[in-house]
Design goal:
Blueprint (H helix, E strand, L loop, with lengths): L8 H19 L8 H7 L4 H8 L7 E3 L7 E4 L8 E8 L5 E6 L6 E5 L16 E5 L1 H6 L13 E5 L5 E6 L4 E5 L3
Antiparallel strand pairs: 1-3, 2-3, 3-4, 4-5, 6-7, 7-8, 8-9
C-alpha cells in the first residue's frame, strides 16, 4: 500500500526558505562587467583606473572587467621606480578582453589585447584565466636559460591554466610578449 503525503503549510514554509536565496541569486547579473557602475562601486578601484578608464578619456572605448580576481595588479612594470597599475579591460565595441597598463608618473596607458594584438596572445585575452606580477628579481635569480630577458621592472605572467603562459614585459620602448610554453 502506497503512502500519500499531504501538502501542509510547513512544506510551504520550507520551500519558501529554500527558494528565496535561489531567486535572489538568479536575479543578479550573470556577468559583472555588463553592469559597470554598480560593480565598480562593489570593488575597490584604484585611483588611476577610476581617473583614466571609468571617468576619463578611455571610458568610451573600454570598461573595467571583473571576470578575474584580482581584476587589477600593481607593480613597477616599466622600471621607473613608480607604481604602475595593470587592470583587466573589455573593449566596449567588440567585447574583446585585455589589459590596460597605466604608468604611475605619466598616466600613459598601453592597451594589450582588447582589440590590440600582442604576440601569441592576440587581440582578445578571453583565453586568459590566470595572471600575476612576475618580479624582475625572480628572472635574475633563476637565470640559467638563454631566452631570459633583462627586465627593467616587474613583468606580467599571463596564462591559461594547464596550458601556455607568457611574460609581458617592458623592453625600454614597448611591452613585448615572451611565450613560456605550448
Amino acid at each position: 500500500m502506497a503512502k500519500s503525503f499531504g501538502w501542509t503549510s510547513a512544506n510551504n514554509i520550507i520551500w519558501f526558505t529554500l527558494l528565496v536565496p535561489f531567486a535572489i541569486a538568479v536575479a543578479r547579473p550573470a556577468n559583472p562587467a555588463e553592469s559597470q557602475t554598480p560593480d565598480a562601486q562593489l570593488h575597490h578601484v584604484p585611483g588611476p583606473v577610476e581617473k583614466i578608464i571609468l571617468d576619463g578619456p578611455l571610458a568610451k572605448k573600454y570598461e573595467v572587467s571583473f571576470r578575474l580576481n584580482p581584476f587589477y595588479l600593481h607593480g613597477d612594470f616599466n622600471g621607473d621606480g613608480k607604481i604602475d597599475v595593470a587592470v583587466l579591460v573589455k573593449q566596449r565595441s567588440t567585447g574583446k578582453l585585455g589589459i590596460a597598463i597605466i604608468h604611475g608618473v605619466t598616466d600613459k596607458v598601453t592597451i594589450l589585447g582588447a582589440g590590440t594584438a600582442i604576440g601569441n596572445g592576440g587581440d582578445d585575452f578571453e583565453w586568459m584565466d590566470t595572471w600575476q606580477v612576475y618580479s624582475k628579481t625572480r628572472v635574475a635569480s633563476g637565470g640559467g636559460g638563454k631566452n631570459v630577458p633583462h627586465l627593467r621592472g616587474g613583468a606580467l605572467l599571463v596564462g591559461k591554466s594547464e596550458a601556455a603562459s607568457a611574460l609581458i614585459y617592458w623592453n625600454g620602448k614597448r611591452y613585448v610578449w615572451l611565450q613560456q610554453g605550448d
